[in-house]
Amino acid sequence: MVESNPPRRLNVHQALGGGSVADVILWKKWYGGVVVLMSTSALWFLFERAGYNLVSFVANVLFLLVVILFFWAKSASLLNRPLPPIPDLEISDESVVKAADAMQIWINSALSIAHDIALGRNLKLFLKVAVGLWVISYIGSLINFLTLVYIGVILSFSVPVVYDKFQDHIDEKLCVIHRILQAQYRKIDDNILKKIPFPSNKQKKIQ
Fold it and tell me: Which helix H or strand E contains 122, and what residues bound it?
């Protein structure tokens, strides 16, 4: 009897990009994770609990930064000191092209999905999008956007670490859940979705 090989473990560090960002998320550079969590916690407290306004906060920070840099530069010229070490603030053409290419892929994918849904070609895709939008709307009615971002940051610094440590047990449970959901989806597909008539492409062209 041939024994099945055990599934390969996912390299979470490589899945996250394998760079310094992955090191921070997986707490290999713990000081980076501490700085990010403390910063996001402070911002969430300022805007959610202290009632600080985002626009006024950004304006005050920029105003303070401009004043400090201005008087620093003036005092440096009077005292023959070096100017503030400010790098050249510009965006390279390569960065703009990469960002535009990435945005084009996402936008074209979203437009393709919207096109298929508008023409009624794919009921399964329509149901998936409808359920996803309903879930987003329901979550948005419970918490605001800033709290949602804060929860996302906390989860991004906790879920990858837990999964990397207990990957085998989590994969086993996820496989069981996936099989159950697939079985339920097949029942709905066979009993409901496949019985709904749809006009074929030839009929649409004739119309």
Answer: none
Identify how many contiguous H helices and E strands the chain contains and give both numbers.
10, 0
For residue range 24-73, what is the model confidence (pLDDT) as tens digits?
A: 888 888 888 888 889 889 888 888 877 777 788 888 888 998 898 888 88
Distance CA 146, CA 24 (A): 22
Nearest to 52 by CA among 43, 65, 62: 43
Q: Rounded distance, CA 109 to CA 115, Å? A: 10
The answer for residues whose C-beta is within 8 angstroms of residue 150's C-beta and 6 or more apart is 40, 41, 44
pLDDT digits (tens, 9 = 90+) for 109-148: 888 878 777 776 677 777 788 888 888 888 888 888 888 8
CA atoms within 13 A on the CB side of 169: 5
The full DSSP string for 159-205 is HHHHHHHSHHHHHHHHHHHHHHHHHHHHHHHHHTGGGS----HHHHH
* DSSP state letter for 50: S
Q: And the tokens for 55? A: 């626009």
pTM score, whole prediction: 0.61
Q: Are 84 and 69 in contact, with CB atoms under 8 Å apart?
A: yes
Q: Which helix (H) or strand (E) holds 83?
A: none
